[in-house]
Amino acid sequence: MRFTELMKMVFVNIFSSKSKCALTSLGIVAGSATIVLVIAIGQGGKMDVAEQFKNLNAGAVEVSAGQTADSVMESMMENFGGGGMPSFGGGNVPDFGNRGGMPNSGGNSMPNRSKSSSRSGGRASFGGAARSGGVTLTEQDVDDIAEVVPNIEAISIIASGEAAVEGGDLEEETAYTAAGVMPEYADISNLEIQYGSFFDDYAEEDCEKVCVLGYKTAQSIFGAAYLAAGDYISIEGKNYEVIGVLSSMGTVSSGLSPDETIYLPYSTAKKYVFGNAAEPKISAVASDVSEVENVMADIETVLAQNYPDAKFTVTDAGSQMEAAQKSANTLQTLLIAVASIVFVVGGIGIMNVLFVTVKERTGEIGLLKALGSKKRVILLEFLLEAGMIAAFGGIVGVGLGYALIPAVEMTGTRAEPVMTAGILSLVFAVVTGTIFGFYPALKASRLTPIEALGSE
């Protein structure tokens, strides 16, 4: 039998039972649509990760402070009423809350580290200040790190929080995110200026009341970003000149969204906006990505000298990006595994229907065998039918998957259509149908003419 005749028989058999074929392919339709959607969602997640970190240098390092051992002890004593720790077993535990020194194992007294001392004061450590509840990083720590640690291209201290803003088109006082940073922060986070300029070292040294607005913030306050530069706004009751507006970035860096942040000189923000309530972090960028680990280790060493009993969290952008990317990949793999299960269910449906079809068409099989058709012809006929049904389901499923992407995005989930997803889904559908159709086809091909014709 020629292949064209065989294909004609396959199409005749399929179109003679359209409803059965359509119902049989439902599982493949669902699986194909799921694969397309899963890959689109996974791609959207990867693009989100890439955009969130695109304004960070690969060599960026961030430092945040934890609690000191002393502050933990003070906090525990405050919980007991502030008058010292209770006795256990009848003995009194001395109150170390206001001690002049802590006894060490050798009986000597270890003096407390001065909270306000500086390097010029002659202390061995580099600088900084401690406060109740933990450690407060300072500009002195930035200077120490910049002076001692090699391979640092730029470094800045950062403090952020909400601030009350008035001015522009605002009808009432509105809360916006404000961040006190050093001029070097613009290089660390790749901030791009669209209008005006970023503040310089003189603004930082003189505590100038100037600010730079994120693009969305400028639009929100003034109606249009280009109207903001050169105008004034009030932050916490004091007037600030808007000297610059950032380009629209749509990303998040160091917990801040540049588009929605008001940037101030750190000294200005500390003096007029945050005061002692600030909990600063330090951001730095290594001059070479290969030196990031060494830079992180050196920063920890400097801070360990400044604050011997404190803990610090030192992270780098590369590790954060890698971890986020791995999470996105893991989620996509999990979703693809779920979609594969749907394909398997669809394949089982095709197999069951073909088993029934073989029973229904034993007479036809016997007649073909009696006319001289070989086993491979019967096998190929049923395999082609299974493949055609699966291909039909795959095509419908791929179209449905792409059509549902806008609906997925309406839920707030980013989905990016990928052409390879449709191709992969279609191939997966045909392969699934062929694999699950093989056994029924093989069973049909092994029927003898007498056995097949005798079953009628």
Q: What's the main sheet like?
A: 6 strands, mixed, barrel
Estimated radius of gyration: 35 Å
What share of residues are in beta strands? 15-25%
The stretches of 5 or more residues where confidence is low (pLDDT under 50) are 71-133
Number of helices: 15
Mean pLDDT: 75
Task: Give me a quick take on this structure.
This protein is an alpha+beta fold. The protein has helices at residues 3-15, 18-24, 26-53, 69-79, 139-148, 185-188, 201-205, 215-222, 266-274, 292-306, 317-360, 362-370, 375-409, 419-445, 449-454, and strands spanning 60-68, 101-103, 109-111, 129-131, 134-136, 152-166, 174-181, 193-196, 210-213, 232-235, 238-246, 261-265, 281-286, 310-316. The strands form three sheets. Strands 6-7-12-9-11-10 form a six-stranded mixed barrel. The chain has a two-stranded antiparallel sheet with strand order 2-3. Strands 4-5 form a two-stranded antiparallel ribbon.
Detail the topology: elements first, then pairings.
Layout: H1 3-15, H2 18-24, H3 26-53, E1 60-68, H4 69-79, E2 101-103, E3 109-111, E4 129-131, E5 134-136, H5 139-148, E6 152-166, E7 174-181, H6 185-188, E8 193-196, H7 201-205, E9 210-213, H8 215-222, E10 232-235, E11 238-246, E12 261-265, H9 266-274, E13 281-286, H10 292-306, E14 310-316, H11 317-360, H12 362-370, H13 375-409, H14 419-445, H15 449-454
For this entry, give a set of tags.
alpha+beta; two-stranded antiparallel ribbon; 15 helices; 14 strands; 51% helix; elongated
